[in-house]
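Mods, move this if it's the wrong board.
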Amino acid sequence: LLKKMSRPEGRGSLRMAIPPQDKGSIVIDIGKVYTKCGMSGEPAPRHIIKSQVTVKPYGQVEDIWNPKYVNREELYLLLCRFMQDIYLKHLMVNAKDHRVVVVESLLCPTHFRNTLARVLFNHLNVPYATFVPSHLLCLFTIGRQSALVVDVGCSETTILPVYEGIPVVTAWQSTSYAAEAVQNSVKTLLLERAVVKSSETGQDKPVGAMKVDEVIEASIEDIIARTCFVRPQSVVPRKMPPDVHYPLNSKFTLVMDGHTRDHAADVLFEDSGDDQPLPICILEALLKSPVDTRRELSENIIVVGGITALPGFKYRLKQELETLVKDKCQKYCSSLEALAFRFHEPPAHANTVAWLGGSIFGSSEVAVLERAVTRDTFRELAQLPDWTSCDPEQREQLRAVPTRKLLPAAPSSSLMKQTVVWKPLAR
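Not the wrong board. Structure tokens:
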């Protein structure tokens, strides 16, 4: 090879074999509260923005996940403005020059993903896009094909076993105990125990007596991230942590006691009767998984989500799991007692793990040659192929779609000769 490169004809043939420089993929992870966006191949998203749109002319702020936007046309207009802001205001790139990797939830509503595809293909003229489940992308960050993915989101927590790259959907579990439950718990504790200190008068008054509810509501995420932690499971009385002072504004300072900081995340682990706690859901997912996969799944657990970044979260979760499987009164003792629970540490912050997996996936050849949906294919089918569909007519429609030439971001004679058939991603 070195001899060929040393000769002019060798250099010319090698240059012809190398495809033109690819401009990469746009990776977008649209969450319920925050949206992460950036370029493939980068270790972190360039921007983390609110999943909201400012509607003109009155400047009203609307959430794109608002359930009132069931009408596809209303949602289409909202997503058009939202995606325009991402491309033109934040990333400042031309949508026609980049392929797109959309990090989606495994249970994303069909009308939302089809409407988002309409915006990408019809409004922004994206050449091709790939829709990938977030649970699968988390495995790209640790280089494993099998793991138990625990996604603690804003309004719900989902647990999905993935074995050899195939999601075990029959073992999927969910619970309403998530970040919102922790926030509501902290708000309740603050109203009961916290005080607000005024810098003008120097007096301490309960939170309920002061008009700071809106300020606390706007800062509750930052309050939890800066002051709270997850206490370990212990029957021995522990020394209470010290109080902390959190400045709300130039006039008032919030004084949080140690009990509030210590018990902020207890709602995720304790059974209050409303829903199953997080440890029970994990064990139920393992119990519903095939017997020969349980050991590998329990030894490869990935916990993602912003609230899981609290200090002591994984340690407390491991304690709860070990206690439940050793309890003779629980049904998990006979089936899961021999399992060991180990947690991975992905090379990213807890709330950007799925986006990092999309960044790795977007920079690979698989995203371009095998998994992409082209603009012509979408316009011919008028909807995204759904992997959960068992309708034989839809399968025949997919098979009847002719092979398309997958045009790269920069047209090239070498890549235009390749014909690629779209294959649905196994989840």
